[in-house]
Amino acid sequence: MIKIENLSHTYRDREKEAIKNINLHVQKGESLVIIGSSGSGKSTLLKAINRTIEPTAGKIFIAGEDILSSPNKKVRQIRGSIGMIFQNFNLIERETVLKNVLDGRSRYNNNLNIILGRFSQDDYRVARESLQMVGLAAHEQDRVANLSGGEKQRVAMARALSQKPEVILADEPVSSLDPKLMKEIMDLLKNICDEKNITLISSLHFLDFARQYSSRIIGMREGEIIFDGSESDLTDHDIVNIYGKTRDWYLYGKLGF
Ligand SMILES: Nc1ncnc2c1ncn2[C@@H]1O[C@H](COP(=O)(O)OP(=O)(O)O)[C@@H](O)[C@H]1O
Ligand SMILES: [Mg+2]
To answer: Of 40, 81, 169, 206, which is least packed with CB atoms within 10 Å of its CB?
Structure first.
């Protein structure tokens, strides 16, 4: 589903590479969790896959298509097949739940219809189905601004699902939520992706979460992948390697729920 070869990225005016020589193959339907301290390059890697940044070197193939040298139209198409979920939800707060979820249908519409906010019956049907999946069917006319954090993340999930994505990239999807909601949201996301055979790549801070929600864990440190294996392969030695012997070890490695 995703093949990454020798991928590196250096941000402008920075000397150090944010990600360095990343090689990664992800199969369809896998559930991959990226762990690592703040600044280890998790978000940069996800942004490169979604092509919100143009990496300085390397190649990314999604479903066999080279996304870095594809024409714009193709890139839009590929991007449309990737749903994104962020820590801070990235919703339009003053709009209704339904309107936000319909945004996920943009890939199926032309620009004029998007600008005019015109959506087809089919778009409405899919948006409502997605809201049903995340348990928010009764809230479609609510303003996002009035929702709780957990509900907002459900809206973001429904928006991603209404794209009918092949892949969902979730960058710290539960970092803004309290522990109980963290589990609720991750359970929901993981179950839906399993059921629909959607490839899920999330970055998560807490190790217990990474263990619980992954079929495979990627450990990053200073822009490099230093662990790639299953939850049962991850030793204490690996964990110290990933987080370093810093406060993070205690914070992310040892704190559990
Ligand atoms: N927009 C940016 N401009 C410059 N440097 C950045 C930018 N975003 C991230 N970085 C740097 O790139 C490195 C990796 O950051 P990031 O991918 O955000 O890590 P993580 O998501 O694991 O916290 C860090 O050193 C960070 O300071
Ligand atoms: Mg990040």
So the answer is: 81
